[in-house]
Amino acid sequence: xxxxxxxxxxxxxxxxxxxxxxxxxxxxxxxxxxxxxxxxxxxxxxxxxxxxxxxxxxxxxxxxxxxxxxxxxxxxxxxxxxxxxxxxxxxxxxxxxxxxxxxxxxxxxxxxxxxxxxx
Length: 119
Known about the structure:
Blueprint: H1 2-21, H2 32-58, H3 64-73, H4 75-84, H5 102-118
């Protein structure tokens, strides 16, 4: 009787492990990494095109191969460069040209118009 229990236990364990490995709720997605690579390469390609357009616009030396590998490996640096290229000296100003808010600028213009009409 105890031999039957041991045998039953082995069979139950083997069946349980086999069912667990091939359980219908478990989705095996082999090859999903290839989809991720396609999207990542697409992202790098779009960024490369953007960088090439900026190079042409600002007449910056370089080529598309360098741009592609830079976008593939160092995309945060490329994004920062693309953001900074239009700014003078590549640096954002600490103080904006006009420190007044839009509302203050409009109010000042309105006051000037009233002053001009009174004069």
